[in-house]
Amino acid sequence: MPVSSLIVGGGSIGERHLRCFQQLGCDVALCESHAERRHEMSDWYHLQRTFETTEAAAEQAWDGVVIATPANLHVQHAAQFAATTNALLIEKPLCTRLEDIEPLRAATADKVVQVGYVLRVHPATQRVRQLLAGDEIGPPHQITVVSGQHFPSFRPAYRHIYYARRETGGGAVQDAATHLFDLIQYLGGPLDWVYCDYAHQVLEDVEVEDTVHLLGRAGGGRVLVSLALNQFMAPNETHVQLNGSKGSLGIRFHEQRAGMILRGDPGWTWTEPLIAERDDLFRAQAESFLAAMVGRSPPLCTLDDGASALRVNLAALQSGEEQKPVEIASRRR
Q1: Regarding the domain delimited by 119-272+302-327, which CATH topology (the fold level of the hierarchy) does it fall under?
Q2: What is the pLDDT of residues 271-302, one digit of tens each?
Q3: Ordered DSSP codes for 41-93
Q4: Which residues have C-beta within 8 Å of that of residue 315, sequence separation ≥ 6?
Q5: 25: alpha, beta or left, given left = phi > 0 and alpha = psi -120 to 50?
Q6: 208-228 tens-digit pLDDT
Q7: 140 cis-preceded (ω within 30 degrees of 0)
Q8: Which fold has domain 4-116?
Q9: What is the DSSP code (8-state) at residue 167?
């Protein structure tokens, strides 16, 4: 029998989840409050079931539920569906307030919870994780990230959606940079402190930041971290480099490649492109969630992982406001 999956939220990320779960053979339904968008997606994807309200959708049982609403609603919606599903995939960021973590943890205590930090599932990320585990370059001592894209080209409606307000998870810190915060911690260990500068530079009709510069330390102070990101430049590129005593590892997400260079090598050795299109990532994320749902593997990004990324988000925002380094809040023991 097809797995019954409910997508809560019909924005661009909700549509991507819907499409990718459907392509994996799931029986997909949609909960979307805006009638025009709901009818539009129902027609495009030939949906048999749609819901206008979360209350109506939560009256039915689901194998899995994807929460793809604005981040400030994640806890409310996850709690609503906890009684009618055993598995939740919650989009990033997990939420927008530290005080929401424990209520969310209590509501989902006996559930499978995965957080949507999709870069974890990228084959280039997994390749670098394998090379780190094999001690190919020695322990990493430095991680550098340089990233950017012309956001209006990829999300033309940015002025009218969650992105326009920090309270709903908007701005570059909580939108694009949080993916990279999570990636840094996934590869280099928990961030200990951050010193962040951010500004609104270019994007029209919004006031939230579109540019982020961050310095920090990870892995108990062993790894120096730097990140530079903007959401207005012409190329869509993300370069990640980890430098160790024996060599370096790299990821070029815009080329879908992983690479390595050891001391004495004449140059980098890069893989062939490891995925063909962005939907490949989200299908892989959906597959990992389905595997966790039936107990074949643990969630790729747990609630605790999502909470850790949230703490970095909040520390980065605080650091930018106060213009000083901020220690990352204590983690749950």
Answers
A1: Dihydrodipicolinate Reductase; domain 2 (3.30.360)
A2: 999 999 999 999 999 999 999 999 999 999 99
A3: HHHHHT-S-EESSHHHHTTS-BSEEEE-S-GGGHHHHHHHHTTTBSEEEEESS
A4: 191, 193, 194, 196, 326, 327, 328, 329
A5: left
A6: 999 999 999 999 999 999 999
A7: no
A8: Rossmann fold (3.40.50)
A9: G
